Amino acid sequence: MDEVDPGTVAEVLDAVRALHAGNERFMRVLEICSVLVGEEPLGSADPATVTVGPGGRLELLPPFAGGAGRPETDRT
After folding, report:
1. Cα angle vertex 14, ends 9, 16, to 5°?
2. pLDDT, position 74
3. pTM over the 0.85 mark
4. Cα distances (Å, whole numbers) of residue 63 to 11, 31, 34, 67, 73
5. Quick one: pLDDT at residue 1?
6. Separation of alpha carbons 39 and 73, rounded Å
7. Residue pair 16/47 in contact by the 8 Å Cβ criterion
8. CA-based R_g, the chain, Å
9. Is 37 buried (19+), middle (13-18) or exposed (0-12) by CB count in 10 A?
10. SS3 state at 18
11. Are 52 and 12 in contact (CB under 8 A)?
């Protein structure tokens, strides 16, 4: 778990990217993750307008098996 200063979701994500600079796999996964602020999904909200306060938690959830972003396969 990474700890960064509070700020907007955009600022927090920038800080996390800086911590993992050079890790291309992490960056690719980060781009497709769902984001939770506390227990609330970020959804279509603008990351620059949503705040993660002191002691707050931002969670990054990668797609899980059967989730969105997984290509359809022909099973016949």
Report:
1. 95
2. 46
3. no
4. 23, 11, 8, 6, 17
5. 85
6. 32
7. no
8. 14
9. buried
10. helix
11. yes
Spatial contact of 12 and 58, defined as CB atoms under 8 Å apart: yes
- Cα separation of 21 and 19, whole Å? 6
Q: Which of 39, 47, 40 is nearest to 7 (CA)?
A: 47
Token pair recorded at residue 76: 């016949």
What are the tokens at 14? 């920038």
Q: What is the pLDDT along the chain (76 residues), one digit of tens a residue?
A: 889 999 999 999 999 999 999 999 999 999 999 999 999 999 999 999 999 999 999 999 988 744 455 444 444 4
